[in-house]
Structure to design on (154 residues):
């Protein structure tokens, strides 16, 4: 298989590293608290949505009996395009980005949004684009058609 991932760091590890970066940013920048604890309430709601989104994606993969392992896109047996995958080609990575947004809110540190931007750029370059090359090799025109109708993120 010609398409290999540029870096083989599991996305949850990337997410944890970015969370640490965001925490460090929050320690050295101004914090902004929303009234009535809305930052915490929003953080919990967004985190819950992120978890639901990820679970929905995993269930869709399991229904199609294909791999959920992001480090082995070449072992994908089925192109999943139904359910949540009609709206996003990468709902699991999207859920991690939402989790980081929730973390930013929890930290009450607006400048930590930098971590979310870094995560999205990093994942796009080093995880998603290589996965897309592997899926194109596996599914050809079917994958190209899917890409034409479904956004990479949202």
């Amino acid at each position: 298989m010609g398409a290999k991932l540029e870096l083989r760091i599991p996305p949850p590890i990337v997410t944890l590293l970015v969370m640490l970066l965001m925490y460090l940013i929050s320690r050295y920048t101004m914090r902004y608290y929303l009234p009535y604890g809305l930052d915490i309430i929003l953080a919990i709601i967004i985190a819950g949505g992120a978890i639901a989104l990820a679970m929905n994606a995993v269930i869709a993969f399991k229904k199609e009996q294909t791999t959920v392992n992001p480090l082995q896109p070449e072992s994908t047996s089925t192109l999943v395009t139904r359910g949540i995958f009609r709206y996003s080609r990468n709902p699991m990575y999207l859920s991690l980005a939402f989790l980081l947004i929730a973390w930013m809110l929890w930290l009450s540190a607006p400048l930590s949004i930098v971590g979310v931007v870094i995560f999205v750029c990093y994942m796009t370059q080093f995880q998603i684009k290589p996965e897309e090359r592997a899926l194109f090799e596996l599914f050809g025109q079917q994958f190209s058609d899917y890409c034409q109708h479904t956004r990479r993120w949202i």
